[in-house]
Design goal:
Radius of gyration: 33 Å
Structural class: mainly alpha
Mean pLDDT: 81
Largest sheet: 2 strands, antiparallel
Strand content: under 5%
Order of helices and strands: HHEEHH
Number of domains: 2
Length: 137
């Protein structure tokens, strides 16, 4: 796999924070740190695309804090557009179902199909009886 170098301009404070986080997490290289940061960002972006909040809560599940980062806003906006489109598609599908009366209970549909089969058999029997009478007469 080909690797690429990415030069970063960081303040001394940011560099020290990265080193402190790497030491605490047991991360050995800056590359590994960036890979982990990328994975976390990817996950947060994906959650936003699914119209979910990204955040944390305490061990009792009481206090909730959501993550708000300007760089994630485009993902949340895209999710809103997708939700609007999905809800419109769902509404159209709902109307289509209502129009075709698919929403009826399955037992009702099965009873109707059975009745059609009975009527078809009766009609066929009537036709055969009529043909028999025509031949006799």
């Amino acid at each position: 796999m080909e690797t690429n170098r990415i030069p970063l301009d960081l303040s001394e404070k940011e560099r020290a924070e990265i080193e402190r986080l790497m030491a605490f997490a047991g991360i050995k290289t800056e590359s590994e740190f960036v890979s982990n940061a990328l994975e976390l960002f990817r996950w947060a972006a994906e959650e936003m695309l699914y119209s979910r909040c990204v955040g944390s809560f305490d061990t009792q599940g009481q206090s909730v804090q959501t993550l708000e980062m300007p760089c994630l806003a485009p993902f949340a906006a895209a999710a809103s557009r997708l939700d609007a489109k999905r809800s419109t598609e769902e509404e159209l599908q709902r109307r289509k179902i209502e129009d075709t009366k698919i929403y009826r209970p399955l037992s009702e549909i099965m009873a109707e199909m059975h009745q059609r089969e009975v009527n078809r058999a009766k009609s066929q029997e009537d036709r055969q009886n009529h043909e028999s009478l025509a031949r006799v007469g």
